[in-house]
Amino acid sequence: MNSLGPFLGLLVAMAVVGVLVLLLRWTFGTGKSLVSRAPRTGAPGEYGLLVSVAAPHTAEEAQRLTRLLDAAGIRSTLVHTTQGPRVMVWPDDAPRARTVLAP
After folding, report:
1. Mean per-residue pLDDT for 51-61?
2. Would the pTM of this model clear 0.70, i.e. be above it?
3. How far is 86 from 2, CA to CA, in rounded Å?
4. 15 CB-near residues (< 8 Å, 6+ apart)
5. Among 14, 51, 74, 88, which residue's CB has the most CB atoms within a 10 Å radius?
């Protein structure tokens, strides 16, 4: 029984290494990952709680509008949707944002 001890230990160590190799190969494989998907462009209503308050025609206009909102203390984000760029804010800030952006 004593002579099987080292052989059994080697066999267990090789099995553990084999399981680790399989786990690492599965983890870092080149298959499709649910975590690192490429972002896709959606419709203006597909951005969760954010509400569209402006539809700028150019990138410069979009940056100008986001700077105006930022100066007024309103958090905003610029989103590229299937219908063009949109400036989005939280629903609670939407009325105030529309007031700030009104001509």
Report:
1. 89
2. no
3. 75
4. none
5. 88
